[in-house]
Amino acid sequence: MIRAVHPSVWVLRTFVVVGLMLALYAAAPEGFVPSPFVTVVVLAVALGSALKPEHFVGSAAPAVVLIWWAGVVQSAFPDGTLIAAAALLTSHVAAVLLGYGPPSMSVEADLVRLWVPRGAAVWLAALLVWFTARAYSGHATPSEFWLAGLAAAVVGAVVAAVVLPTTRPVAEDG
Amino acid sequence: MTDNRSRWRPTSALARSLTVAGVGVGLALTLGRPALVVIVAPLLVVGALGLLHKPQQEPRVHARIGHVQLHEGQGTRTRLEVFDEDDVEVVTRVMGQVPYVALHPAEGAVAYRSGQDRPIEISPRRWGSRLLGAEKVAMMSPWAGYRWGPASIPAHEMYVLPTLTHLRTLAEAPQPIGLIGAHRSRRDGDGTEFSSIRAFHSGDRLRRINWRVSLRQGTLHVESTRAEEDTAVLLIVDAMADYGISEGVGGQESALDVTVRAAAAVAEQYLQGGDRVSLRVLSPGGEYAGYGTGTAHLRRILGLLARVRPGLPRDVAVGEIDFRAAAGSVVVVLSPMLSEALASATVRLVRRGLPVIVVDPLPPGTTPVVWPDSDPRVADLAWRMRLLDRSDLLSALASAGCPVVPWNGPRTVEEVLRRLARRTQLPRAGGT
Question: pTM of the prediction?
Answer without folding.
Answer: 0.75
